[in-house]
Write a structure and sequence with these properties.
The protein is of the alpha+beta class. It is built from 7 helices and 5 strands, in the order αββααααβαββα. The chain is flat and about 60 Å long.
Length: 182
Amino acid sequence: MPLATTNFLDLLASLFGRPALTTPARMLETPSIEPTADGYVGFCTNSGQQFRDFLILIDRPDLLEDPELPLFIGRVMRFREWNEIVHAWTRQHTTAEIVERASALRIAVAPICNGKTVLDHEQLSARGVFVRDPLGEFVHLDLRTESEAYCRHPVVRLLAWASIPARSSRGRHGRTRRPTGE
C-alpha cells in the first residue's frame, strides 16, 4: 500500500553524511494514487514482477517489452504519456473492481478513502477504529482502543483530538470543550 511504505530518506541522508532533513521529503511514485470511475485507488509496484503484472492488469501487455517503462526514471521521462495510459484504464473501472483484480495478480493495492468512505472501510470497521461520540453527534477515532499502538502515539492522539469538533455546550470558564480522547 502506498501509505504503508517508506524509503527512510532521513536515514539515507544520515548514512551519506548529508544534513538532517528539516522538512518532509517529497516523494514521487507512479503508479501510485490513481483515479477510478468512482474514487481513487493506490498501487505499490516496487518489484519488477508487480510492475509487469500491473501492465497486464491495465490491459497493456504490449508494453512488457518497452525498455524504459519498467524503470522509474523511464516513467518520469514519459510522465504525461504514462499517466494517460494508466488513467485510460483506471477511470473505466470502479475502485472495488480494481482492488479485486489487482489483488488476484498479487499487486499491492488499496482503496483510497475520503472522509466519508473511511468510516465504511471494511478492515477499519471490523477493528472498531471509529466510534460514535457519547452524544451521538459524530463519529471519531476511538482513542480508547489500546490494542492498536498508533492510538497511543502522541502525534496521532493530537491529530485525532484536533479533528473532533468542539461541543456546542460551554464548559467551565465559558470555554468550548473538546473530548479528551482518554
